[in-house]
Amino acid sequence: AQSVTQPDIHITVSEGASLELRCNYSYGATPYLFWYVQSPGQGLQLLLKYFSGDTLVQGIKGFEAEFKRSQSSFNLRKPSVHWSDAAEYFCAVADFSGGYNKLIFGAGTRLAVHP
Amino acid sequence: NAGVMQNPRHLVRRRGQEARLRCSPMKGHSHVYWYRQLPEEGLKFMVYLQKENIIDESGMPKERFSAEFPKEGPSILRIQQVVRGDSAAYFCASSPRSWTRPTDTQYFGPGTRLTVL
To answer: For the segment A46-59, what is each residue's pLDDT rounded down to a tens digit?
Structure first.
């Protein structure tokens, strides 16, 4: 069955430090992969998505993610974190098995940023 | 160009009451998805609807839950006889088509946070 694993439940970094959030997926075919961010009490905002082509994807707010098929991973990175990046981050894969698409989400990683 | 609208944003119900959650998709979108986020968990798919049709309700509990997307008006997620375990954030997403093309994306609303006392 398709699934998404985010191994880190909570991560704390200092402002200005680099960030990497891990995501592993299980999917039989070529995956469509996404990262969403959820600020407290807010809805989900799409950060970036991968469908095909270049395995390094650029997103909004200075984020990027790299698709590695051999590792079944789609890790999210940012070179320098800002205090406003504190939020919950969700990795998702699109499930095509029903002939249409629905998203399967990981459990999320909560990011705290120290000044 | 308004995004996906959901109302109410917060809803408080006592056990046994009914909850009605509304979702207005983005203009031009005819496909709606509902997801539920339990506390400290990720989002879980509940149901996928097109106008006047339920396409997939495999993620929705068989009892007490129902969803509709009429020809006119918003999509409604209805929970009858709510219990404490229904307390969660319910998110709606819309897309312009069944999203078989990479350029299509699901756009999420701000969610309705349901609290059952």
So the answer is: 999 998 888 999 99
